[in-house]
Amino acid sequence: MEFREYAVDILLTTILLISTLFLALRFWQDRLIAIATAAMILSLWGLLLSLHMRMLALEQDAVARERTLRASLEEISSRTVRKHDMALTHLDELIAEFSRRAYR
C-alpha cells in the first residue's frame, strides 16, 4: 500500500496524540485524572486502529471474492459456449443426415 492511503490515518493519529498530551498536561495536577484520560484516549486510538484493520481485511476479502467470482463466471461462460457449439454441430449433422435421406 502507498503512503498516501495512510496519510489521513497518520495525521489523525498525530492529532490524537498531541491532544492527549495537552489534555494530560492540563490535568497534571491530579495524576489519576491524567492517567485515566491518557488511557481512555489511547484505548480509543486502539479501537479506531482495530476498526481500520478490520475494514482493510474486509476490503481485501471482497477483492479476492470478486476475482474468484469473475474467474468462475468466465469458466461457466466458456463451458456454455462449448456446449452451445457442440449442440449446433450435432444439429448440423442431423440436418445434413436428414437432407441426405430426403434426396435418396
Descriptive report:
By secondary structure, the chain is mainly alpha-helical. Helix content is 93%, strand content 0%. The longest helix has 73 residues, at 31-103. The radius of gyration is 33 Å and the shape is rod-shaped.
Short description:
With 104 residues, this protein is mainly alpha-helical. It contains two helices and no strands. α1 runs antiparallel to α2.
SSE arrangement:
Elements: H1 3-26, H2 31-103
Helix pairs in contact: 1-2
Keywords:
single chain, 104 residues, mainly alpha, 2 helices, 93% helix
Q: How many angstroms separate the termini?
A: 73 Å
Number of strands: 0
What is the CA-atom radius of gyration, in angstroms?
Answer: 33 Å
- Residue stretches low in confidence (pLDDT < 50, at least 5 long) are none
The biggest sheet, with number of strands, parallel, antiparallel or mixed sense and barrel status, is: none
> How many domain regions?
1
Mean pLDDT over the residues: 83
Class computed from helices, strands and strand pairing: mainly alpha
Listing every helix as H and every strand as E from the N terminus to the C terminus, the arrangement reads HH
Helix content percent band: over 70%
**Helix count?**
2
Shape: rod-shaped
Strand content: under 5%
